[in-house]
Amino acid sequence: MLEELPDQITEQTSFLTPQFWGTLVSGIILAVVATFVIRWLFRKYVKAYMSKWFSEHSITVGERLILAFIYLSITLWIFLEMEPFRSAVDYFFGIFPRDLFLTIVVLIVTFLIVTIFRIFFENYLKARTPDQKTVVRVIEQIVIALVILLALLVIVGIFGLGGAVTAIIAGAGFAGIVVGLAAQGVLGNIFSGISIMFSRPYRLGDAMLYHNDFAFVEDINLMHTVLRTWDNRRIIVPNSIIDKEPLINYTIKDATMIAPIFVDVAYESDMDKAYELMKEEARKHPLCRLDLMEPKVHMTNFKDSGVQLRLIVMATTQGDAFQLSCDLRKAILERFRKEGIEIPYPRRYVIMDSDDEHN
Q1: Which of 66, 89, 62, 65 is nearest to 77 (CA)?
Q2: Could you give the count of Cα atoms lying within 13 Å of 231 in the half-sphere of its Cβ?
Q3: Is this structure's pTM higher than 0.85?
Q4: What number of other Cβ atoms are within 10 A of residue 328's Cβ?
Q5: What is the pLDDT averaged over residues 346-351?
Q6: CA Rg value for the chain
Q7: For residues 71 and 73, what is the distance between their CA atoms, to the nearest angstrom?
């Protein structure tokens, strides 16, 4: 085989035939026309419609990739008219199995398609609401899974294993039942992920309480949901589990939240004055949403050493509500000290019997 290549190449002394020159001129004309058309389309339509999803740099890179693919295709077409090159290609496929080569091509194309889909969906998510982000994220996972499945089917077809695979599946019998039972968890997570996409009990970016951990929904996949806690930990929960559990979602309908602040005041203190001081401190805080609700103070309990007062204020988000509560506790403590309002210590009264005194 190795000795045959030089003889095949030298059979034709010159590859500059009239057919080659015709192909070369046609290729150059085709490249010029393709360049003009692609650039005109990108300048006229693509940039106008795709700018809301992709940056200008990404669009420019896409234009160059398309032109590079066209130029490469035209170059290969021209070279195939050269007998030495065609013989070299035949020789290459003679020593390198064609099926394996096509498989590598399919894998490369699949990788490029998956990458393009990921870039598209990531840019598409930036311009969408939380509801749409969740749907698009799950659709992305489904589309990528279908692309990979299609690539596997194409590879099976290349090697001519379709009949064998069908026979294996048809004759699997008990093994198929065992595999199906083993895959219940995987299928359950996938169906739960699709269910979450349609019902949307939570969305990307939502603030929620899961098992007493305050967290944000960072990612939703077909198999699991990733929660990022307030202290930057990641809780990875299978979709089949989180879909069945009760959740506290702080932002699904309305992100605003009422923040309660409890303060004990001595029985001897001026209650009306304490009420007004607490409201004043709340009104001064920048995170207090006075446009949504005026601060309110209620007497909620009689305790051993004082009266329990509760101040409620409105904040924009749960995070703001937590920060507002912390700041108001400090501000109310300092203001009460300055105005003479006592926050009592626990008091214990010991009554001694007269007989115990003599003993």
Answers
A1: 89
A2: 1
A3: no
A4: 24
A5: 72
A6: 36
A7: 5
